[in-house]
Task: structure prediction
Amino acid sequence: MTALAPARRRAVLRQSLSVGLATGAYGISFGALSTAAGLSLLQTQALSLLLFSGGSQFAFVGLVAGGVGGAPAAIATSTLLGVRNGLYGLQVARLLDVRGLRRALAAHLTIDESTAVGVAQPEERAGRLGFWATGAAVFVLWNLATLAGALVGDAIGDPRTYGLDAAAAAAFCGLLWPRLKSRDAVAIAVLAALVAVLLAPHAPAGVPVLVAALTALLGALWPTAHRDPPPPHHWADEDTEHPGASPSGGASPAGAPRSGDAP
Result:
């Protein structure tokens, strides 16, 4: 695996930091809502440190604020978000190829943002750097913003006033746009976005994303769809490391499993 050029490394780190800033800033909202729901500063901070899943944290706070009557919706939302992160884990396990304590740390940092930045990189080393740098940036900034929101949330007001609720979505659009290399890819992305927008006001958090992803998958499998070039997570140096691998990243012709395929 060749080392990254300094300029390429800086580009990945800039991308990671920008995503971390956009996502972490919204932690102010969680801190303010959590203390308003009756949780202490310590309890609020523990949720961000140990759970570290924005959607699940908001669902938990909603359960505390709404009482037992809101439990089914909160539990369903957290479960769906957990399933989504489990699917991310299958993707990044092959990218990172870590064991022991680093594997546990990677699992804790496997979120939307770290996965998106990691798999968007054309080189394996850049993908690993993007995952770790983004995960660390979001973790640190999300917890700092949680603390700020818990301490001065009332003085800040509604974070949506400053557009913080849209910052993370804008960062994801910036990651997605360079990957749309054909008309079919653009059409599928627009369809998935439309499905998510239509479902968002009526479905629990996490459901619109899952349904939109399923829509995109079905669109990509449509028989008449044109195939894009190999996706960015088929790294350029794989073929040199695994000479028997097929261009699609599958097993060798003999059917032997490739190293790193196991989660």
